[in-house]
Amino acid sequence: MTGELASKPAAFGAGLGHGRVGRWFLASAGAVLVLTGGAKLWSALGTSKFLAAVDPILGLKFGQLMLAVGLAEIAVALVCCFSRRRTLALGLVAWLATNFLVYRVGLWWMDWKRPCGCLGHLTDALHLSPQMVDNIMKVLLAYLLIGSYGLVIWRWRPEIKPNGA
After folding, report:
1. What pLDDT tens digit does each residue of the chain (165 aa) get?
2. Which among 89, 151, 154, 159 counts the fewest CB atoms within 10 Å?
3. Is residue 97 part of a domain?
4. 9 found inside a domain
5. CA nearest 100: which of 60, 57, 59, 61?
């Protein structure tokens, strides 16, 4: 390629089918975030005594925290599913997942022994143990982290030009 076309960055995920991979990842990340954000919102609007307890890291009531995080997850999910700005969507997923990771590291650092109440009362409705849900959420967190950072790095890698170009 010569001239103006050679100086422009490759389209998001161009080459090796990564455009499809990027679109699929953003759609699946959006679905995960809609489900987990919706579960948080549903739980935050409940009447459990747990919602009045104070989060050990942020000092907010769990109800307030779940409401704020649920809204953030839904907002990022909407960007993932409806925005054409894929780099922005990937960056938001990476940012949100990094915040979840830092929060979990903080709980671990404090020697917090209880499973994360990430999905609130949904665990009761689905008849799943809190520990099983905690493990599922760890897997989803790893998926969001690896997928978003991997695709961001792929997006910003230097373009490799064929020999003789």
Report:
1. 444 434 444 444 444 335 889 999 999 999 999 999 998 998 888 888 888 889 889 999 989 999 999 999 999 999 999 999 999 999 999 999 999 999 999 989 998 877 766 666 666 677 778 788 888 899 999 999 999 999 999 888 776 556 655
2. 159
3. yes
4. no
5. 57
Block residue for tokens 């990564």:
18
- Tokens linked to 6: 């050679």
Can you point out the beta strands (E) in 63-110?
none
Q: Is 124 part of any domain?
A: yes
Domain that residue 123 falls in: 15-155
Per the CB < 8 A criterion, the answer to whether 129 and 143 are in contact is no
Number of domains in the chain: 1
The phi, psi pair for 61, rounded to 5°, reads -65, 145
Judge residue 30's burial from the number of C-beta atoms within 10 Å of its C-beta, 0-12 exposed, 13-18 middle, 19 or more buried: buried
